[in-house]
Design brief:
6-stranded parallel beta sheet; globular; 252 residues; Rossmann fold; 6 helices
Length: 252
């Protein structure tokens, strides 16, 4: 049985301060990864994260991006995480399209095959470089939903107990659209660093449930990277109002 790390929760007065500190954190993570292994691998989810990363990626020169989850819709559809990332991020920074690892929608009629194809994308990136049972991302950036879900891992869903696959599909997401693919907990929890971003008073109660009462078992509370992996939350003061663990003392 592996040991997991405890979360560090940083709370900021404004989203601007949060974004600046998140940028510092990612730049440091990138430098350490490149110095140690000569590469930096990152996976992102949707929501507000791509917009937060625009200035950062212009500065850092991140070149390869994977998705923590994606909706099975056309890549230019309003529900697509890739569409959101393109509009808010890729259209503003010079990242070659071949280095943005999207799902293969030609396989959308067979979600198992589509998930397998995305898993093979990960295998091509990681298997020849790492000997671990699961890929080790240098950083995975996640958000949370009002129900405590993260990526496309939802409360009470059978995917919460998936222990073998790197990428899995879901056909009955409680949040539309229903068909999605997602990284599984073993992949997320083998990352060197996982960073959550959550803002706004609407996240206050669910953050309390996730961070102060993890025994409830909400999906986001199950993100606990294998030691010596690091788990950090970047939140604003309205979101952290009910969280006992939160601190304003940001340190790299």
């Amino acid at each position: 049985m592996y040991t997991s790390t405890q979360p560090i929760v940083y709370s900021f007065q404004s989203t601007s301060n949060l974004s600046d500190s998140l940028a510092e954190y990612i730049l440091k993570a990138q430098k350490e990864s490149i110095d140690k292994r000569g590469r930096f691998t990152i996976a992102i989810s949707g929501g507000s994260l791509p917009k937060t990363l625009t200035a950062l990626i212009k500065k850092s020169g991140v070149k390869h991006i994977f998705y923590a989850d994606e909706r099975i819709v056309p890549l230019d559809h309003e529900d697509s995480n890739h569409k959101l990332a393109y509009d808010t991020l890729y259209s503003h920074v010079p990242i070659p399209s071949d280095n943005i690892h999207t799902i293969d929608l030609s396989l959308q009629n067979d979600l198992e095959e589509l998930a397998d194809a995305y898993e093979k994308e990960l295998i091509r990136e990681f298997a020849q470089k790492d000997s671990a049972r699961f890929p080790v991302f240098d950083l995975i950036l996640l958000g949370i939903g009002p129900d405590g879900h993260t990526a496309s891992l939802f409360p009470g869903h059978e995917l919460l107990s998936e222990n073998d696959r790197w990428v899995a599909f879901i056909e009955d997401s409680p949040k539309p659209p229903p068909r999605r693919v997602t990284l599984t907990f073993p992949v997320i929890n083998h990352a060197a660093r996982v960073a959550f971003v959550a803002t706004g008073v609407g996240k206050a109660q669910i953050l309390h449930d996730i961070l102060d009462t993890p025994e409830i078992g909400l999906p986001a509370a199950r993100v606990r990277p294998v030691a010596p992996g690091q788990l950090v939350w970047f939140v604003d003061d309205p979101a952290s109002a009910e969280v006992k663990l939160a601190t304003s003392d940001f340190k790299l």
